[in-house]
Every structure is written in structure tokens, then in C-alpha cells.
Amino acid sequence: MAIPADNWNFQKGDLSGYTHQGRVGVAQELRGLVNRKYLPFSSPYMAYIDDPWSADSTDGTRTQSRHLAPAWDGGGLQIPNRDGTLTFAGDGAYLECPQVVAQRGQQLCFWYVFIGCDSLDCNDFALLELRPPGAAPERVLICDIQMLERLNPGKPTQSREWVQFVYPFAQDFSGDVRWVVCNGKVGLPGSAEALAWPSSLLLDNIQLL
Known about the structure:
13 strands; about 5% helix; Jelly Rolls; 5-stranded antiparallel beta sheet; 1 helix; mainly beta
């Protein structure tokens, strides 16, 4: 399986061709911070990875319901920060495209919006993971709260507009491609705060060029 030829920009209105865990879905419109409206980049639908819209409005904890998928546990991820500290993953979600094959020199391209819904010390993040079988995954940061703070000082939870992300393959690749979103806490593994106010990654227009 490769990037789904019939659902590379979620034009089918579902997640066929992908696997996922946590609160992941497709939408035609979403509301972000300060009631900002988000529309798909190119098709009638976009994917969202993790779901701040189902969080409790008072404390940010996830609303539990039989209609909502349980959160993914974050897989014990630890992400290095620019200042030498670590961000420890809390809960989150991921979307995966299995069995992608790419040749050296090709590029994985997609458009995204990262909606940060937490404070700077929590540092929620979105990652691209390339997962060849039998080998450690390669992880590339897409965006995090600290990046939003650098772009918009004093407003770390402000989200970006649609941004293109390009990953160049330096060598042949065969494996799964995963987009990960997690709550994060700087320097404090297992902090309860890392489980509140989930952020989200909007995703559209995935291509292997």
C-alpha cells in the first residue's frame, strides 16, 4: 500500500487507506482558538489528529463517552528541545499510512495546521514518524508549542495557517508513515498536566512526489 490514490486528500470523506489510534477523523470545517474557522486546504475534507473539541471546557481533560475513542497513550515518546531539555509525551493520537515505498530523491509533501491548545511549559507537539520494519523510527518535528511561541511571542497557543511540510528521502524507504500528536510536558514524565488540553494537527493533500 502507498499513499492512497483515491484518498490522498481525504476526498472520500473518511479515513480509508489509513490506520489510526486515538481521536482521529475527517471534517469539512472546524473551529479553533478564538472561534477561528478552519477549512480544508484543497478538498471538501481534511483529517484531524486528536480532538480538543471534545475536551472539558473548564480543565481541559478529555470528555469520556462511548461515542469517543480512547486516547492513545503516547508510546513513551521523549522529544529533545532546542534548550537541551526534554518534552515527555502524555496522551494523544496518530494517523498512519502503512507500507509506503519511496525511492531516494522523492519527497513526502503535505499541508498542515497545528492548533496548540496548551501553555508553553506543556509543549504539546506534532511529529512525522518514518517506521521501517525491524528498525528504530525516524522522528521529525512538525510543530510544537515552543515553535508557536517563537513565531508569535507571548501567544504560544495561537495556531498557524496552512503550511506545507516537505520531507526529502535521502535513501530508499519502505515502511509505515505516521503523523503523531501528543500532549507534552517539559522535564516531567508522567505529569497529570500532560493529559489536559489536547492540541490537534489538521492534515490535507498528502503526496509522494
